[in-house]
């Protein structure tokens, strides 16, 4: 289900009066105005509750890379219509024609998330 398209920094929501800036909260979560969107298909290292310095550093690298992707390429957000336990919308996020999860996994900044228990990053 397609609900929003982001062009560079901005999301153009249907019938919205103003564009909203997409901001990377961490490597697998973005903010679009007041909405928080959890990108499905990947797991990135934590930045706020990292278990070691190496995890925190890699988490910031993943978040930085995600923000650069959001800033420089056309972005499409495909929401699933579901939310996680933190009330974040679950969605696939694409830049150009590529899935953000695939890009970050390929670059070693994330792991595939198939719903199983998370592995540590330390």
Could you explain how this protein is built, in words?
There is one protein chain. By secondary structure, this protein is of the alpha+beta class. It is built from two helices and ten strands; from the N terminus they run ββββββαβββαβ. Strands 1-2-3-4-5-8-7 form a seven-stranded mixed beta barrel. β7 and β8 (89-95) form a beta hairpin. It starts with a strand and ends in a 10-residue tail after the last strand. The model is unreliable at 1-18 (pLDDT under 50).
Key phrases:
122 residues, alpha+beta, seven-stranded mixed β-barrel, two-stranded antiparallel ribbon, disordered N terminus
Quick summary:
Helices cover 22% and strands 39% of the residues. The chain has 122 residues and is of the alpha+beta class.
């Amino acid at each position: 289900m397609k609900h929003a398209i982001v062009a560079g920094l901005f999301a153009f929501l249907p019938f919205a009066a103003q564009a909203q800036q997409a901001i990377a909260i961490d490597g697998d979560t973005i903010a679009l105005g007041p909405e928080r969107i959890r990108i499905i298909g990947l797991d990135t290292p934590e930045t706020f509750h990292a278990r070691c310095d190496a995890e925190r550093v890699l988490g910031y690298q993943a978040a930085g890379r995600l923000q650069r992707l959001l800033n420089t390429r056309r972005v499409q957000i495909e929401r699933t219509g579901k939310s996680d336990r933190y009330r974040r919308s679950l969605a696939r996020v694409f830049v150009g024609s590529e899935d953000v999860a695939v890009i970050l996994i390929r670059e070693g900044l994330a792991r595939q998330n198939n719903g199983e228990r998370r592995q540590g990053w330390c």
